[in-house]
């Protein structure tokens, strides 16, 4: 028999993730299998490896999710079968094309075999909907900042599905910049968590790094100059025979990135007159960014909503949040749907 459950698959980059959500938004399973260890030695995600790893682990992650949901529902008549689901959903894009194709092909196969409808989800909308895991009653209009490994975007969410992109990065994404700085310091991959841990005990005012586009009076960002400034600083210190204070460096780098993020978010809020603000993408896991925006915007009377810390980096729970609403609306995809690596909001 059919249950009002949606299974969601996410494979756009280096996490193979599967979640199962019920019609009311209760998360019954949330599995993530990360490939980070396989990519770390190369200092970044190797697309070919990502695709192969998704193929390797996909069935196991889906099985684990079905078992987790079975336990959560307290079923004792055996493990939940795919044919008992109301729909299967999958990230269609954006992301690495070979990685996306694995998820899309698997979801199509599951749809065909289990005779359940297929739903496709935009990964960026998934990062936005991660906020609904914290605040299910969140309603537009509001301002949303997406800061991930691939994107840096300031968005005016006018209504669900009506997204006005106010500005984007002209070069590198914020997460990408964290990764590149960590790589320049030989600290490993991904850089975000490493740098944010170092920054905990650093002085954010120790080094005055450039705040590019801070006063550009628009909502565009530029991060590549900051990356160059950090690399130049490291080279100068090393050449002068001084030992780097990694904590101060990390904290000062974060401050340069986050000052610009706050300034532009606040300007977007004032321009649109919204009362609510939310954040998404891997960098939204950063404790300093979370705390700073909550404090500074909170002080200005803005309600700040953040995704659960564990739902900022890529996961399938956020894909499931989008999919269950599409299920309610009967928004299904046909079986000839393709992965779309260049999808935007
Ligand atoms: O959203 P995500 O998992 O993948 C994309 O859709 O791109 O974001 C990954 C990015 C990486 O660049 C990673 O370094 C960054 O998020 N990240 C962080 C933190 N945790 C992950 N950046 C800053 N601080 C963190 N704590
Ligand atoms: Zn992502």
Automatic annotation (TrEMBL):
Q: Which residues bind Fe cation?
A: 123, 127, 314
Cite the binding residues for substrate: 146-150, 179, 192, 286
Residue intervals passing through the bilayer = none
Where does it localize?
A: Cytoplasm
The UniProt similarity line reads: Belongs to the KAE1 / TsaD family.
Q: What does this protein do?
A: Required for the formation of a threonylcarbamoyl group on adenosine at position 37 (t(6)A37) in tRNAs that read codons beginning with adenine. Is involved in the transfer of the threonylcarbamoyl moiety of threonylcarbamoyl-AMP (TC-AMP) to the N6 group of A37, together with TsaE and TsaB. TsaD likely plays a direct catalytic role in this reaction.
This chain's protein is named tRNA N6-adenosine threonylcarbamoyltransferase
What species is this protein from?
Answer: Collinsella ureilytica
């Amino acid at each position: 028999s059919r249950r009002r459950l949606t299974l969601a698959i996410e494979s756009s980059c280096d996490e193979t993730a599967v979640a199962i959500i019920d019609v009311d938004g209760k998360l019954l399973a949330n599995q993530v299998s990360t490939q980070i260890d396989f990519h770390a030695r190369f200092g970044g995600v190797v697309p070919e490896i990502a695709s192969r790893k998704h193929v390797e682990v996909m069935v196991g992650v889906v099985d684990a999710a079905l078992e987790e949901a079975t336990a959560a529902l307290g079923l004792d008549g055996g493990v939940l079968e795919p044919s008992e689901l109301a729909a299967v959903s999958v990230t269609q894009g954006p992301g690495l094309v070979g990685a996306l194709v694995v998820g899309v092909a698997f979801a199509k196969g599951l749809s065909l075999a289990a005779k359940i409808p297929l739903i496709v989800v935009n990964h960026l909308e998934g990062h936005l909907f991660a906020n609904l895991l914290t605040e299910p009653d969140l309603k537009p209009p509001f301002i949303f900042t997406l800061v991930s490994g691939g994107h840096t975007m300031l968005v005016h969410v006018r209504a669900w599905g009506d997204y006005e992109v106010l500005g984007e990065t002209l070069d590198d994404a914020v997460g990408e910049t964290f990764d590149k700085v960590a790589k320049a310091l030989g600290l490993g991959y991904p850089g975000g968590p490493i740098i944010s841990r170092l920054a905990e005990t650093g002085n954010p005012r120790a080094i005055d790094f450039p705040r590019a586009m801070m006063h550009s009076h628009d909502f565009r960002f530029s991060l590549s100059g900051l990356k160059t400034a950090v690399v130049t600083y490291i080279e100068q210190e090393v050449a002068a025979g001084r030992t780097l204070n990694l904590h101060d460096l990390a904290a000062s780098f974060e401050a340069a990135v986050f000052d610009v993020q706050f300034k532009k978010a606040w300007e977007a809020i004032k321009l649109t007159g919204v009362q609510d603000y939310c954040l998404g993408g891997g960098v939204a896991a950063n404790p300093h960014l979370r705390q700073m925006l909550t404090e500074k915007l909170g002080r200005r009377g803005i309600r700040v909503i953040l995704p659960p810390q564990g739902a900022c980096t890529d996961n399938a729970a956020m894909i499931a949040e989008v999919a269950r609403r599409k299920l309610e609306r009967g928004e299904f995809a046909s079986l000839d749907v393709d992965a779309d690596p260049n999808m935007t909001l």
